[in-house]
Amino acid sequence: MTNNDILKKLRVALSLRNDDIIEILGLVNFEMTKGALGDLFRSEDHDGYVEAGDQVLRNFLNGLIIYKRGKLPEPKTGIKEDDDDEKPKAT
């Protein structure tokens, strides 16, 4: 199964339009035109068919996570900053 097949199956299973896929790719700063996206979804024997590389599929999947779940919150380090003004001074 090619990356193109995986993209096609996910598009159908999730009822995504081309605009949705472009938006998903944009969430991970991966720009793609509607024309380039259409080339990925052509049949393999068509002259304009373009094989989707691993980078396209990887970015789509990462964008899909953000699209469905949202961005992860910033991790908390658990390190408390020391403020000298708030501590009582030893006398």
The biggest beta sheet reads: none
- Regarding quaternary structure, what we see is single chain
State the shape: rod-shaped
| Low-pLDDT residue spans | none
User: How much is the radius of gyration in Å?
Assistant: 22 Å
N-to-C terminal Cα separation, in Å? Answer: 74 Å
The number of distinct β-strands equals: 0
Helix content: 40-55%
**Secondary-structure element order, N to C:** HHHH
Count of domain modules: 1
Structural class: mainly alpha
Total helical elements: 4
Mean pLDDT: 89
Percentage beta strand: under 5%
Explain how this protein is built.
- The chain has 91 residues and is an all-alpha fold.
- It has one domain.
- Helix content is 47%, strand content 0%.
- The chain contains 4 helices and no strands.
- Helix 2 packs across helix 4.
Brief description of this entry?
This protein is mostly helical. The protein is built from 4 helices and no strands. The longest helix has 16 residues, at 54-69.
Layout of secondary structure:
Layout: H1 3-13, H2 18-26, H3 34-40, H4 54-69
Helix pairs in contact: 1-4, 2-4
What labels describe this entry?
mainly alpha, 91 residues, 0% strand, single chain
